[in-house]
Amino acid sequence: MPADAPPPALPSLRQRRRTVATQEIVDAAERHITQHGAVALSLRAVARSIGMTAQALYHYFPNQEALVTVLITRGYDDLTGAVRAAVDTAEDDSAVPRFVVAAEAYRRWAVTHPERFQLLYGTPLRDYAAPAEGPTTQAVRQLSAIFQRELFGAFSAERLAAAEPFALSPSLRAHLEYLSTGGPQALPPPATALLLSAWGHMHGLVVLEVFGHTSFVGDHQAEIFHSAMRSLLEDIHRRIPERAGTPPPAG
Predict the structure, then answer these.
(1) Left, alpha or beta for 60 (phi > 0: left; psi -120 to 50: alpha)?
(2) Which of 31, 125, 153, 200 fits 149 for a cystine, CB–CB 3.0-4.6 Å?
(3) pLDDT tens column, 96-126
């Protein structure tokens, strides 16, 4: 910054108060979801919990959809932060692959915050639709980018393009080609298919646990998840050839 440049203007008192009040509303909404579930969320209940009238709350959030968008975005940001922190602090020489580390962090966050996880991935809220290409979409992409990196970071684009996920119909391949035009992190169709399959397996196990469908396994759920993620990673990497133009090893 040039020596004679004026210092950046500080937020006004009114702006600071608005920031504090907005944060208080979001915190209260998250507490309400934790206690009553996402489907019970209402602006009136949130306002009442912090001694504010519903009419006053509308000065900060024009409708419930705006508040839900902030809650979903913050949920994804917190989940992404937990996954990123786990991967960033993993030992380089650890026997646990970094993809498995990321997946286990994803599971831990979901199990620790089941109501917030259900807000992200549970029953859709009536009349709510996320803004197209809005903050929730960007937040999802940040989370997906971590898993994409840990799955495929060691492979060239040529090797990923030569992967053999499963038989792709012409229409599916065309759609995956369309998805592959999305920027520098876009994957070739075979790798996109593998990523979606991996996401489905990982996320499906977490959903079953969060919604109580695997409670009969008891304290062994973490061990089963760990083994499943290792097997999943090994299977995906077996489908990627050592060199472009050579088939993946049999198995």
Answers:
(1) alpha
(2) 153
(3) 999 999 999 999 999 999 999 999 998 778 7
